[in-house]
Amino acid sequence: xxxxxxxxxxxxxxxxxxxxxxxxxxxxxxxxxxxxxxxxxxxxxxxxxxxxxxxxxxxxxxxxxxxxxxxxxxxxxxxxxxxxxxxxxxxxxxxxxxxxxxxxxxxxxxxxxxxxxxxxxxxxxxxxxxxxxxxxxxxxxxxxxxxxxxxxxxxxxxxxxxxxxxxxxxxxxxxxxxxxxxxxxxxxxxxxxxxxxxxxxxxxxxxxxxxxxxxxxxxxxxxxxxxxxxxxxxxxxxxxxxxxxxxxxxxxxxxxxxxxxx
Length: 262
Ligand code: PEP
Ligand code: MN
Hints:
The protein is of the alpha/beta class. It has a single domain (13-31, 73-252), classed as TIM Barrel (Alpha-Beta Barrel). The protein has helices spanning 37-50, 74-87, 120-127, 143-154, 183-190, 199-203, 209-218, 245-261; strands at residues 13-15, 18-20, 26-30, 54-56, 91-95, 109-112, 133-136, 161-165, 195-197, 223-229, 243-244. The strands form two sheets. The protein has an eight-stranded parallel beta barrel with strand order 3-4-5-6-7-8-9-10, surrounded by six helices. The protein has a two-stranded antiparallel ribbon with strand order 1-2. Strand 3 (26-30), helix 1 and strand 4 (54-56) form a beta-alpha-beta unit. The chain is globular and about 45 Å long. 50% of the residues are buried. Manganese (II) ion is lined by residues 32, 201, 227, 237-238.
């Protein structure tokens, strides 16, 4: 069970030789969407040099409009694997339905996006696979519902789950979502799973990513997922919230200083 009263010890999620969980802080970075092999390889090399330990990139994109860029799909996963080969960074990418699972054989961490947090058939299906799962909180879901979705995965035998707070819908419109910072310590008190924060989707605004990253660390997050792009102005999705590569590097320098103070 995800409940800490049943399992008091912190779960450490292992991705190759990387550990995420209490005492092991990791930064996942990369573009919202994989756009080309050159793009994702360039971003991977840069974020690795800055200190990211996992590469993210969307291949199957859950877009609000069916006419918006839907991702490179199987080619996107192929390009992520090239970037992994070039850099050694394990890859994190979103699955949208269970029929895509065969394409995820070489993917290191399977992401369940906010819009699929209560796709119970998909949760059960990834619960039957042996890979770590990054489960994002739904746009309008409570902490209790979030934990029950993790329970769906765990009920099928997979305990390697990373919870990700990525902002929720509120009355506020100036930010894309409202980062629920109290979810981080609450999730960590109620469950034994690692909790990371995605400040990019929470804010929707590039200039808020650094301050929200620092806030996430202050409330005890076990990691961050930050969108980066080689040319955010031309990004095919989420450019407004993406850091460019020098901005990410500067943020990582700042975060490393803060973490080493602890
Ligand atoms: C993403 O990580 O690119 C994404 C679509 O996030 P979310 O599911 O949190 O909206
Ligand atoms: Mn995105």
